[in-house]
Design a protein that fits this description.
Number of strands: 0
Oligomer: single chain
Amino acid sequence: MNLYWESFKTFFKIGMFTLGGGYAMIPLIEEEVVNRHQWVKKEEMLDLIAIAQSCPGVFAINISIFIGYKLNKVRGAITTALGTALPSFLIILIIAMFFHQFEDNRVIAAMFRGIRPAVVALIAVPTFNLAKQAKLNQYTVWIPVVSALLIWALGVSPIWIIIFAGLGGYLWGKVKR
């Protein structure tokens, strides 16, 4: 089958399940891209996730662009980005057209309250998987914990955390050599 069409279909399917944002999509992306189609190796996936997180923009679009580019350069990146963004665009368009009809509906409000815990789980699972793949241990587990606390409790901008983590990693690499 045509790789453009196959990659578009794959990322369209992934884009259909964006509840919870890009991080909730990580298990779906990994299953499709690494396990099913084998477009990317498992080790590469961790690097792509790290790069997609550190780039400005929407995580899901960033990672789809990187994978699409790996498959078919610029055309592949455009194909996978459209595949990822189109479902959300269509869903938001439909909701916007009919929102006024059900904005006060108790059933709809209850459905969204029910979805919230599932979204938390969808974000938690890839977080723990990434921690395993990043080989966190008793000496390095403090880094994400302190980073999360600085952001949550003290209101430190995540941008500063990324800059200092990158600088720290660079310096650690220099010292370790």
